[in-house]
């Protein structure tokens, strides 16, 4: 079986993504997680480029990794500098990694127009730099920057740069689609051409500007590349890099190529979420393999089939990458969806065909009124429980009122005006009714505060529950201010998160419905503690 080396550059190239700024601690945590995943090479950064990368390599040199090898990244010597005196090469040696990756030009236009040196001079820069680091006992990889653009422009010269690095001792020459604009067919031709001129290992480093980084990576492997470079979740400059969370399972499960163990592969989704958390970015739920929606289904036809044969609408087993399949509830659903979702919540509707049908009809009616349950499963779960004849809600709203008043501040302070929002609610719990009021930063916040204030009298354990996200969407924009709106709320008790939905032509009512569902859901799930 063909063996492929996995080279991760999340800590350098991935950090180039807009909005990412890894601390040294962040980079060390991610490096440990990548090692657990089975990555062969972890590129830590560019020594000498900034104090953060220098500190990382100092601390990382003391880090015990089970498999992964840390790599320092830098460029070939300058055109007018000898290798032994070049500051970049000295910084690479000071990083004390056993492997160094050098980047150099392979596009003739870049050599003359950016480096402002001769084509032969660039070949000397590559050869001198590789040979110097080899003489210091280092394993050297060479990143042939802009290789595929260079191959289109001047194929003979692009291949000369590959040879220059290989003959000087580069262990692997990585062909880079730096602009991310190559097509898989272009990659195949160029990799095969490089394979013919050198016996050195070839790698692929693809960017995603044309949405083809993963496809180009797999095409390169099929054409003879044995090292793949990429980042977790595809993070990187501009549109990102090849996403290793897609490349790895494609290699392992679809191409039968050894890269990590099946046990390690089952941690892929965990790693994707871990890196996104450290990066302080929400993981794209629609990412292949590791996204929450990667194996989610809404159509009743799909779900009915999968309840008989789970693989009928999955291209792989979700568990193989540490994910799971989900059923989404909507007007597209069939009774099978309702039965499965109820079963997940401990309610068996298998032999209650009429009740399942009634719930489905209720879902369709509510969605016609602007509700949407595929992103608000807590509200859907409540809908199921409310369909049970013996269900008693933990509280009922008697009425509420929200007032927004515009006041002028005292003249001694300022002549500016301010808005005051106040809400009053009457809530019934059992035979008791409580009437409370609260102010808030806006009408929804005031209503939220008043409702919680009332319920805390009966359910003090509600105190940790808080609203963490609030979204409003106008459903019928053509109706102007009379449009129906949908409110989606995400709540948390510090340990778990859940989402609820409300819809109305009145944004306050829509907000209340979502708020009430949120609190009722928590009380239902924590009934034994209340």
Structure overview:
It is elongated, with a radius of gyration of 30 Å. Strands 1-2-3-4-5-6-7-8 form an 8-stranded parallel beta barrel, surrounded by 10 helices. A 3-stranded antiparallel sheet has the order 11-12-13, with helices on one face. By secondary structure, it is an alpha/beta fold. The model has no long low-confidence stretch (mean pLDDT 89). Helices cover 39% and strands 21% of the residues. The protein is built from 18 helices and 16 strands. The protein starts with a strand and ends in a 5-residue tail after the last helix. Helix 6 (147-153) crosses helix 7. Helix 8 (184-197) links the parallel strand 6 (172-177) and strand 7 (201-206). It has 3 domains: 5-278, Aldolase class I (TIM Barrel), CATH 3.20.20.70; 296-386, no CATH class; 395-458.
Quick synopsis:
The protein is α/β, with parallel strands linked by helices and 530 residues long. The protein has helices spanning 24-37, 51-60, 87-94, 108-115, 119-135, 147-153, 155-167, 184-197, 213-223, 244-254, 262-265, 268-278, 300-308, 335-344, 353-368, 377-386, 443-458, 507-525; strands at residues 5-8, 41-45, 69-75, 99-105, 139-145, 172-177, 201-206, 227-230, 296-297, 326-327, 396-408, 417-429, 432-440, 466-474, 485-492, 497-504.
Task: List the SSEs and their pairings.
Elements: E1 5-8, H1 24-37, E2 41-45, H2 51-60, E3 69-75, H3 87-94, E4 99-105, H4 108-115, H5 119-135, E5 139-145, H6 147-153, H7 155-167, E6 172-177, H8 184-197, E7 201-206, H9 213-223, E8 227-230, H10 244-254, H11 262-265, H12 268-278, E9 296-297, H13 300-308, E10 326-327, H14 335-344, H15 353-368, H16 377-386, E11 396-408, E12 417-429, E13 432-440, H17 443-458, E14 466-474, E15 485-492, E16 497-504, H18 507-525
Parallel strand pairs: 1-2, 1-8, 2-3, 3-4, 4-5, 5-6, 6-7, 7-8, 9-10
Antiparallel strand pairs: 11-12, 12-13, 14-15, 15-16
Helix pairs in contact: 1-2, 1-12, 5-7, 6-7, 7-8, 8-9, 13-14, 14-15, 16-18, 17-18
């Amino acid at each position: 079986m063909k063996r492929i080396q996995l080279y991760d550059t999340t800590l350098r190239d991935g950090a180039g993504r807009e909005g990412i700024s890894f601390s040294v601690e962040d980079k060390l945590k991610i490096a440990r997680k990548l090692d657990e995943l089975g990555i062969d090479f972890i590129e830590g950064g560019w020594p000498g480029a900034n104090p953060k990368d220098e500190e990382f390599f100092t601390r990382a040199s003391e880090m015990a990794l089970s498999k992964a090898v840390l790599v320092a990244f830098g460029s070939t010597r300058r055109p007018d500098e000898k290798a032994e005196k070049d500051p970049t090469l000295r910084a690479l040696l000071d990083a004390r990694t056993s492997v160094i990756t050098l980047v150099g030009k392979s596009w003739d236009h870049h050599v003359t127009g950016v480096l402002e040196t001769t084509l032969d001079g660039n070949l000397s820069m590559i050869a001198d730099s590789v040979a110097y680091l080899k003489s210091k006992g280092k394993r050297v990889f060479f990143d042939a920057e802009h290789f595929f653009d260079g191959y289109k422009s001047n194929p003979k010269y692009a291949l000369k740069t590959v040879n220059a690095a290989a003959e000087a001792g580069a262990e692997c020459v990585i062909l880079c689609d730096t602009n991310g604009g190559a097509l898989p067919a272009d990659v195949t031709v160029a990799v095969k051409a490089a394979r013919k001129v050198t016996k050195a290992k070839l790698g692929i480093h693809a960017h995603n500007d044309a949405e083809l980084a993963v496809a180009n990576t797999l095409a390169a492997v099929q054409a003879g590349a044995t090292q793949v470079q990429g980042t977790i979740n595809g993070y990187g400059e501009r549109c990102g890099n090849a996403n290793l969370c897609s490349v790895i399972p494609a290699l392992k499960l679809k191409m039968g190529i050894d890269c990590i163990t099946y046990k390690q592969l089952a941690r892929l989704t965990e790693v994707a979420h871990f890196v996104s958390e450290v990066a302080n970015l929400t993981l794209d739920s629609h990412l292949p393999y590791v996204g929450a929606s990667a194996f989610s289904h809404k159509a009743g036809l799909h779900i009915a089939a999968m309840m008989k044969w789970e693989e009928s609408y999955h291209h792989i087993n979700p568990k193989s990458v540490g994910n799971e399949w989900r059923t989404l509830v909507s007007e597209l659903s069939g009774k099978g969806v309702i039965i499965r979702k109820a079963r997940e919540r401990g309610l068996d509707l298998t032999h209650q065909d009429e009740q399942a049908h009634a719930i489905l009809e209720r879902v369709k009616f509510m969605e016609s009124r602007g509700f949407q349950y595929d992103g608000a499963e807590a509200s859907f779960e409540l809908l199921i429980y409310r369909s049970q004849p013996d269900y008693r809600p933990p509280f009922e709203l008697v009425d509420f009122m929200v007032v927004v008043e515009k006041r002028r501040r005292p003249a001694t302070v300022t002549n500016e005006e301010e808005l005051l929002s106040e809400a009053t609610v009457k809530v019934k719990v059992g035979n008791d009714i409580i009437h409370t009021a609260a102010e808030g930063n806006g009408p929804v916040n005031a209503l939220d505060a008043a409702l919680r204030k009332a319920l805390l009298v009966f359910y003090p354990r509600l105190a940790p529950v808080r609203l963490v996200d609030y979204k409003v969407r106008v459903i019928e924009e053509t109706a102007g201010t009379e449009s129906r709106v949908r409110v989606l709320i995400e709540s948390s008790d510090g340990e778990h998160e859940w989402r609820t939905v409300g819809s109305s032509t009145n944004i306050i009512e829509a907000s209340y419905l979502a708020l009430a569902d949120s609190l009722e859901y928590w009380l239902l799930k924590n009934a034994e503690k209340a």
